[in-house]
Amino acid sequence: MSRPERQPSPDVAGAPPDFVVADRIVKHFPVRVGAWRRGSVRSVDGVSFTIRRGEVMGLVGESGCGKSTLARVLLRLLAPDSGTVTIAGRDLSSLHGEDLRRFRTTMQLIFQNPYAALDPRMRIGTSLEAPLAQHGIGTHRERCRNAADMLGEVGLDESFVERLPRQCSGGELQRIVIARALLLRPRFLVCDEPTSALDASLRAQIVNLLVDLKNRFDLTLLLISHDLRVVRYASDRVAVMYLGRIVEVGERDAVFDHPLHPYTRALIAASLLEENGLAAGDAIRGEPASPLHPPRGCHFHPRCAIARPRCANGEPELAGGSGDHRAACFYSGTLAAR
Ligand SMILES: Nc1ncnc2c1ncn2[C@@H]1O[C@H](COP(=O)(O)OP(=O)(O)O)[C@@H](O)[C@H]1O
Ligand SMILES: [Mg+2]
């Protein structure tokens, strides 16, 4: 996939520029370790970042680093152990009952497997209409009209309302799932590995569709993927996650062209090798540690080519390069100079 020129975001006058603000989010899961001991999986371990209104924020990192858990906390599908999430100026922990239910419709999640997202026995039209009916929006007739129109917006014709999921391809199903999410007129859309279950040939199409819909429907998008190419293609800004922490964040081109964290550099190298049909394993040494027992200090230090004794003791904070480009590495200044 080549990199498109960025379009300026639509007019955002009057809206808070920081649309989603995550502040020191922690989410650990208690688990049994062996017969007697209990431990906790430190899935999200102190994450702060912001997403500006109207932008595509990319979130990358190897499988198991906590991306989906973070997404579920942002959407309040999971309560964090500590930390706050503010969306459009509302602290989500202050919302309960009916208020929370109503606010939730303004945030929608699209995930990897469109086959699992739709009831196999339900016609597409019914699946699309159901969430509107649940929220008491419109008459039956209006809901059917909206559903058919939304199919057009995602590039499908209205005859799809009569089909069952098994009569659609994977790409068509993902478009239908996107249409269903948009029918509720969300402001914030989280796409968690939206193209991972699809053939490579369809990935660019779905990512292009998401960016296009973002502009047309005035959405703010969090695009999560372990695939750097997807994130590089579509994001305005990018956050890189490693073992429950954000290790680098910044404008897309700054992060990809001038990475400050050794982990980001290794991920980019691995992705380049993969693109050229070579094994990516050589680019990053070893396996990620278990989030049950993350290494002390910088979580990445056992795999890091430039680690020094200090890295095993202190925890580096996200700190500045130029503009809002920041990395959590004691030696990112050294890397920036190279
Ligand atoms: N409900 C849960 N109970 C226990 N561990 C969990 C739960 N959900 C996620 N995890 C663990 O948290 C870590 C991060 O998972 P996840 O957020 O799914 O990562 P990613 O989306 O980056 O692949 C993994 O080690 C995973 O096994
Ligand atoms: Mg995931």
Structure overview:
The protein has 338 residues and is α/β, with parallel strands linked by helices. The chain has a single domain, classed as Rossmann fold. The chain is built from eleven helices and twelve strands. The protein has helices at 67-74, 97-104, 114-117, 124-134, 140-153, 170-183, 200-216, 228-234, 252-257, 262-275, 332-337, and strands at residues 18-33, 37-52, 56-60, 82-87, 90-91, 107-111, 188-192, 220-225, 237-242, 245-251, 319-320, 326-327. The strands form two sheets. Strands 6-7-8-3-9-10-12-11 form an eight-stranded mixed β-sheet, with helices on both faces. Strand 4 (82-87) and strand 5 (90-91) form a beta hairpin. Helix 4 packs across helix 5 (140-153), helix 4 (124-134) runs parallel beside helix 6 and helix 5 (140-153) crosses helix 6 (170-183). Mean pLDDT is 90; it is low at 2-13. The structure holds adenosine-5'-diphosphate and magnesium ion. Residues 29, 31, 41, 43, 61, 63-69, 291 line the site of adenosine-5'-diphosphate.
